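Give me the 3D structure for Prostaglandin E2 receptor EP4 subtype-like.
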Amino acid sequence: MNDTRNSSTRTLPDKTAEAMAVPALMFAVGVIGNIIAIAALSGSKQERKSSAFFALVCGLAVTDLLGTCLASPITIATYLNENVLYDNTNLCEFHSFLLLFFGVAGLSIICAMSAERYLAICCPYTYQRWGIDQHFARKCLFCIYLSNIAFCCLPVMGMAGSICQPSKTWCFINWRADKTLPATFSFLYASVSFLLILMTILLNFAVCGTLLIMRRRKIQSPVTRGSTRARWKALSSGVEAQMMTVLMVTSVVVLGCSAPLVVRVFSNQITWAENSHADLMAIRIASVNAILDPWIYILLRRTLFRKIQRFSKVFYSSRKGKAPMLPVKSSQRTFHYQGDITNTHVFTPL
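Predicted structure for Prostaglandin E2 receptor EP4 subtype-like (350 residues):
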């Protein structure tokens, strides 16, 4: 009898450690990735630091880092004591607020980055007239944080309740509420998230479509200073390909990571069908977004992308039996126009 008890006590820590492996690994990768991202951004050139896109990327990296550092330790603590959230109402509401806020804040910043690229490429006159720079981006980040804090505080103010989920490892809004106000907030949160995802994808595809049109329309006439043709000419093929790659990967990541949670919110509130495993997988997939973001926006920088592009050209030439052409540095690699329309920061996303 005593041997049975001792064996059960020995296996319990092993099971706890095995269960903690996934959240602990996600926490470590998220923190390390975002720290590397912030360090890489700090070492960028000064001219790129003054761009609006750079400021938004920094805001996204800091937001992902804060979200990982604040929410993940609470989740890890629940594996050591499963009643941490269940017995503490205030901590449960705080954990629910963190998941709500950092989920919608990340989507808002990514959407703002897509909007900045859309205005820079598709509406250069508006981009220049509004004076979109790092100061404008910081104001935008402040408005995003303030509005999302106010929006995600509504459950704490009584509009919706926060409950501990069946796994007892995370708290979220009561998305199977039968009352009007909690059900309204569930639909409102899911709708806002869905609109942010939809706007991000549409803006990214609009930019990619514009870049494809620019690539096809090769302008033969000489470029005059300050003309719209200068903007088209300044977008070299390498920059076009890099921007399209970053934007397309962003669309896939945003859709793949955030959509499952949005679907679960709609499904739980409409059908009331309980599926705790699907809910847990949805929130884990949503948290992966904070892990992938820094690798998308930092590691796909122009320097690394150029190396990949050169390697692909050499590989493609060798496959066709042609002698690989070495890259030739051109004097037209960087464009500095002093006109009213073009701006060097428009063409250097990172």
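Residues 19-219+240-310 form a domain with the Rhopdopsin 7-helix transmembrane proteins fold (CATH 1.20.1070.10). Let me know if you want a second pass.
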